[in-house]
Design goal:
One of its GO terms (cellular component) is mitochondrial inner membrane. Its main location: membrane. One of its GO terms (biological process) is heme A biosynthetic process. The protein is mainly α. It has 2 domains: 1-119; 122-239, no CATH class. It is built from 8 helices and no strands. The protein has helices at 2-5, 12-45, 51-78, 93-118, 128-156, 186-190, 192-217, 224-239. α3 runs antiparallel to α4 (93-118). The protein is flat. The two termini are 38 Å apart.
């Protein structure tokens, strides 16, 4: 149906391009799964994993399988017939955000586990400043995660095509159709204008939070490795 109504002029070469993109993504996901499960089974069988590490390994392998299942569930939403809709076929923005969020959790957990094994834990005095820095780091992490999820809604709704000017959206700071949908809560997840507006605000807030975290960390005596991590975060935020 989608081909007949929207893509009837697509050539076989153009179709093969998008097909191989999807196929490569699926194959790469399966390779990632094997890269988790096969070494985990080997180290488990050899008795090289401690009891806490076995729990981490099981959780990570389970998350890999869940990620694959979530990807299938997401793609399935783009193949469902919608007789009352004349929009282009697209996956659910909710499932896309869930798939991305799950991937970020998997990557973060993998990195955290790997670094915990490779690098010794710093024994730092629990000062008030250090506690505040840790709280700021956790808050910044949550804000960045939320910003990334909002990006999935932008992608899922093609919301990036609505306005292409910055910092204003068109000629206005706050667009007229920001709350066009009813009930109001729907706008946050389904109104392309609101989704893009929220992503902009969250992006600016994330960059501001990273900058504040970096400046605050400069006032505290920190180990070289920790200072390098904060500086790298600031550099990546600027590039992003």
């Amino acid at each position: 149906t989608a081909f007949n109504s929207l893509n009837h002029d697509m050539t076989l070469t153009e179709f093969k391009f998008i097909w191989y993109m999807e196929y490569s993504h699926r194959m790469w996901g399966r390779v990632v799964g094997l890269a988790y499960i096969l070494p985990a089974a080997y180290f488990w069988r050899k008795g090289l994993l401690s009891r806490p590490m076995k729990g981490c390994v099981l959780a990570l392998c389970g998350l890999v399988c869940f990620q694959g299942l979530l990807g299938w569930y997401m793609v399935k939403s783009g193949l469902e017939e919608k007789p009352d809709s004349y929009d282009i076929p697209r996956v659910s923005q909710y499932r896309l955000a869930a798939h991305l969020g799950s991937a970020l959790v998997l990557y973060s957990a993998s990195l955290w586990t790997g670094l915990s094994v490779l690098l010794p834990r710093h024994k730092l005095p629990e000062t008030r400043q250090l506690l505040r820095l840790r709280q700021c780091a956790h808050g910044t992490t949550a804000l960045i995660f939320l910003t990334a999820l909002s990006g999935a809604f932008v992608a899922g709704l093609d919301a990036g095509l609505v306005y292409n000017s910055f910092p204003k959206m068109g000629e206005r700071w706050i667009p007229d159709d920001l709350l066009a949908f009813s009930p109001v809560l729907r706008n946050i997840f389904e109104n392309p204008t609101t989704v893009q507006f929220d992503h902009r605000i969250l992006g600016i807030a994330s960059f501001t939070a990273v900058t504040a975290l970096y400046l605050f960390s400069r006032k505290i005596p920190l180990p070289r490795r920790t200072r390098m991590a904060v500086t790298s975060l600031m550099a990546v935020a600027c590039v992003q």
